[in-house]
């Protein structure tokens, strides 16, 4: 009797988890697994049947110059946003970790862009970036900096950079929050010991703060890398991959394949993106985890 | 127990009544039909037509609009694939839509319907594929070409150019007088297609003829193997290189194009018939009648050939719920009362016989070209595959000046799309 009761107590939590597991399996696991199969087929909206074609989709992907450019833009975007947002996020977190007046208000204001939907941010900056009557260029001209009043989104030399700047502005607050949480876990005694040893500000940062922020850095870097390699909405709203193909990224490339009904090909591209994120993200995670120090 | 049973029976009856209240076709009850339109189609006249239809039949029509463009077709295909059929839907022109939607299996066959006798001969031919008609044309034959501001032309003493060199001269005179000769909506993207498509009928069709287009249709000729088409792209770049486009072509947008044309700052724009409708809406009928002219892209040594933009079409899925009622709706829409409503609000070159519309001067010029036999349907409407990503690759061409790369990409996209659609020869 007791063993039956114990057995049913062990399986009881499973019953509550089953609905969630079923939803997860249906909406995530099954599509993910079947996408491996569909990437090897000629599945498209015009075909009555779907046929296995082996690696033909992948062969075409690697032969497409537009994809090569899209991958390059994606890597530039991901690298730039990851490094810069975490750098600014860390600097701002350290400043707002000090006892300064209004720091709570400042923390809120800096975090605010992150809670606004990317599509709204995108439309906002489309107006701000307007070369003629956008606020940014008007301010630059007003300050005598007309030479900097460029065509932010329509000049192929600057369009990608402009989208990167918007994403940095939007997500620095999130990085700041993670770093702030990490900073507040660092025992003050360590700083006091460092002061007693005669450490200056840079030494304190290098030998105390930065090592003990390793776990926050890991979280920020990995989330940022994965999220920025999947960038889509910001590019779609600001430039739609243009002008020309100047800001085409991996996900806009995939979207264009889906929009003409080439589902098998687009699924193969999606799989390639997944592999790219894994190949880049896993080593980064591994290297950063090794740096983490247990407090 | 008895009370519980009684309540159960009453609730079942109530639920059954609610489900039965949809009014399926054939039960004599009014039905609600769904009609899908492009979001660029004027909704007002349709609302008037459907109000008249409701007054006569008791059936209600709900309008749903979807974004126009290549994605519109994909969305309709997706709805068909998921058996989510609208009752009636507007579709882009051309028999390629029959292929996309596998018309024999999915669409109502209008071939022997009395409506067909009321359609103009050229339109009927255009709508026919292998002897069958699955789409009822709607509205007017449109056009692509050069819209010019007559006030600007008067100010610079210009007349309609009769050759490519004259066009350049007029543009240079406009620039010297402080006007923008051509405004291209480069940022918006899709208007960039007008120049090469209009250039095709003037420069390419006379060289390759219908046989050449047929060869393209079955992938026996490639787009990057047509020197005349390459020349059209070179001419397009020439306008920019001569400084005859606005300063920042890639920043130009469609709204600004309308605004600057309507306020007399721009001499010419490459646009389609919908541009006139917008000008009427923004700047009034008088402006459209007195200040807007049109001509096709001139040839090297002559006035050029008008590019016609085939009328859109209405289709009825034969697998939808209310097929016969939907077909009756389409017959009503193409009847005299409804056509009167439509053409009063949208004067144009009607695809129906016996319709007299008060054409605007710009439209009359198109009609004159049609009457002279110097008009041809836009090549995209004559091909079953599509020029995918055309706006993007034109933008890229303006960035890097590489005409050959643009043509190679266009050709590649065309063949990939033909293959994806499983067209013969691809």
Report what the structure shows.
The complex is a heterodimer of chains A (295) and B (426). Chain A is mainly α and 295 residues long. Chain A has a single domain (64-291), classed as MetI-like (MetI-like fold, Orthogonal Bundle). Chain A has 13 helices and no strands. In chain A, helix 3 (65-96) runs antiparallel to helix 10 and helix 12 packs antiparallel against helix 13. Chain A starts with a helix and ends with a helix. The model of chain A has no long low-confidence stretch (mean pLDDT 91). Chain B is of the alpha/beta class and 426 residues long. Chain B folds into two domains: 26-139 and 311-353, 3-Layer(aba) Sandwich (D-Maltodextrin-Binding Protein, domain 2), CATH 3.40.190.10; 142-309 and 362-420, Periplasmic binding protein-like II (D-Maltodextrin-Binding Protein, domain 2). Chain B has helices at 2-20, 43-57, 70-81, 96-100, 103-106, 121-127, 150-156, 164-176, 194-217, 227-241, 254-262, 274-283, 285-291, 323-333, 336-345, 361-371, 379-382, 390-400, 403-420, and strands at residues 32-38, 60-66, 88-91, 136-138, 140-149, 180-182, 266-272, 292-295, 306-309, 312-315, 349-350, 375-377. In chain B, the strands form two sheets. In chain B, strands 5, 6, 7, 8, 9, 11 and 12 form a seven-stranded mixed sheet that branches. In chain B, strands 2-1-3-10-4 form a five-stranded mixed sheet, with helices on both faces. The radius of gyration of chain B is 24 Å and the shape is globular. Mean pLDDT of chain B is 91; it is low at 18-24. The chains are: A mainly alpha (295), B alpha/beta (426). Chain A binds chain B through residues 44-48, 66, 131, 151, 153-156, 240-246, 256, 259-262, and chain B through 70-71, 74, 77-78, 81, 100, 102, 186-187, 189, 248, 250-251, 388-389, 392-393, 395-400, 409, 416-417, 420-422.
> Could you list the spans of chain B in which at least 5 consecutive residues all have pLDDT below 50?
18-24
- Percent helix among the residues of chain A? over 70%
The radius of gyration computed from the alpha-carbon positions of chain A, rounded to a whole number of angstroms, is 24 Å
The largest contact between protein chains, plus residue counts on each side, is:
A-B, 24 and 30 residues
Gap from first CA to last CA of chain B: 71 Å
**Strand-residue proportion of chain A:** under 5%
- Give the CATH class of the largest domain in chain B: Alpha Beta
């Amino acid at each position: 009797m007791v063993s039956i009761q114990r057995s049913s107590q062990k399986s009881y939590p499973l019953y509550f988890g089953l609905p969630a597991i079923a939803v997860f399996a249906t909406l995530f696991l099954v599509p993910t697994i079947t996408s491996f199969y569909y990437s090897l087929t000629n599945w498209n909206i015009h075909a009555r049947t779907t046929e296995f074609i082996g690696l033909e989709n992948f062969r075409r992907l690697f032969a497409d110059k537009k994809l090569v450019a899209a991958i390059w833009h994606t890597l530039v975007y991901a690298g730039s946003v990851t490094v810069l947002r975490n750098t600014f996020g860390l600097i701002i977190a350290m400043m707002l970790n000090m006892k300064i007046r209004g720091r709570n208000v400042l923390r809120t204001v800096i975090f605010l862009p992150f809670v606004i939907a990317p599509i709204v941010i995108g439309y906002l900056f489309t107006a701000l970036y307007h070369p003629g009557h956008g606020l940014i260029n008007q301010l630059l001209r007003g300050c005598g900096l007309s030479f900097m009043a460029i065509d932010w989104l329509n000049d192929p030399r600057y369009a990608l950079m402009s989208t990167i700047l918007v994403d940095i502005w939007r997500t620095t607050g999130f990085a700041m929050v993670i770093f702030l949480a990490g900073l507040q876990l660092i025992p003050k005694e360590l700083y006091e010991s460092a002061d007693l040893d005669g450490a200056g500000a840079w030494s304190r940062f290098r030998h105390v703060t930065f090592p003990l922020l390793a776990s926050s850095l890991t979280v920020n870097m990995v989330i940022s890398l994965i999220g920025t390699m999947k960038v889509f909405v910001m590019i779609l709203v600001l430039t739609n991959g243009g002008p020309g193909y100047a800001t085409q990224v991996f996900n806009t490339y995939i979207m264009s394949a889906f929009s003409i009904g080439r589902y098998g090909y687009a699924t193969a591209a999606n799989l390639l993106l997944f592999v790219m994120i894994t190949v880049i993200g896993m080593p980064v995670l591994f290297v950063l985890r090794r740096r983490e120090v247990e407090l | 127990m008895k009370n519980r049973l009684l309540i159960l029976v009453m609730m079942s009856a109530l639920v059954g009544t609610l489900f039965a209240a949809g009014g399926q076709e054939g039960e004599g009850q009014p039905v609600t039909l769904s009609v899908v339109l492009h979001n660029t189609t004027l909704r007002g006249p349709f609302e008037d037509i459907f109000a008249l239809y409701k007054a006569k039949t008791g059936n209600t029509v709900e309008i749903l609009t979807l974004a126009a463009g290549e994605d519109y077709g994909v969305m309709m295909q997706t709805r068909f694939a998921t058996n989510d059929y609208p009752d009636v839907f507007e579709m882009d022109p051309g028999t390629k839509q029959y292929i996309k939607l596998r018309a024999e299996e999915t669409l109502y066959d209008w071939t022997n319907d009395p409506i067909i006798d009321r359609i103009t001969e050229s339109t009927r031919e255009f709508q026919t594929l292998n002897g069958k008609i699955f789409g009822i044309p709607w509205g007017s034959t449109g056009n692509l070409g050069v819209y010019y501001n007559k006030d600007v032309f008067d100010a610079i003493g210009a007349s309609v150019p009769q050759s490519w060199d004259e066009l350049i001269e007029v543009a240079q005179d406009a620039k010297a007088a402080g006007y923008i000769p051509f405004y291209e909506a480069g940022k918006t993207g899709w208007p960039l297609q007008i120049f090469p498509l209009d250039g095709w009928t003037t420069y390419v069709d006379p060289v390759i003829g219908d046989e050449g287009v047929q060869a393209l249709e079955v992938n026996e000729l490639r787009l990057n193997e047509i020197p005349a088409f390459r020349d059209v792209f070179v001419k397009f770049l020439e306008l920019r290189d001569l400084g005859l486009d606005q300063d920042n072509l890639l920043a130009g947008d469609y709204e600004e194009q309308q605004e600057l044309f309507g306020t007399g700052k721009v001499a010419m724009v490459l646009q389609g018939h919908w541009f006139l409708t917008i000008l009427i809406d923004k700047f009034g009928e008088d402006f459209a009648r007195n200040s807007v002219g049109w001509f096709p892209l001139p040839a090297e040594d002559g006035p050029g050939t008008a590019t016609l933009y085939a009328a859109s079409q209405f289709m009825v899925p034969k697998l939808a719920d209310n097929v016969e009622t939907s077909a009756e709706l389409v017959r009503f829409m193409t009847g005299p009362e409804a056509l009167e409503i439509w053409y009063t609000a949208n004067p144009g070159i009607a695809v129906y016989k016996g319709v007299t519309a008060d054409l605007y001067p710009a439209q009359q010029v198109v009609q004159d070209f049609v009457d002279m036999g110097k008009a041809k349907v836009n090549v995209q409407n004559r091909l079953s595959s599509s020029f995918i990503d055309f706006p993007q690759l034109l933008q890229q061409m303006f960035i890097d000046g590489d005409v050959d790369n643009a043509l190679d990409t266009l050709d590649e996209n065309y063949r990939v799309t033909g293959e994806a659609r499983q067209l013969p020869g691809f």
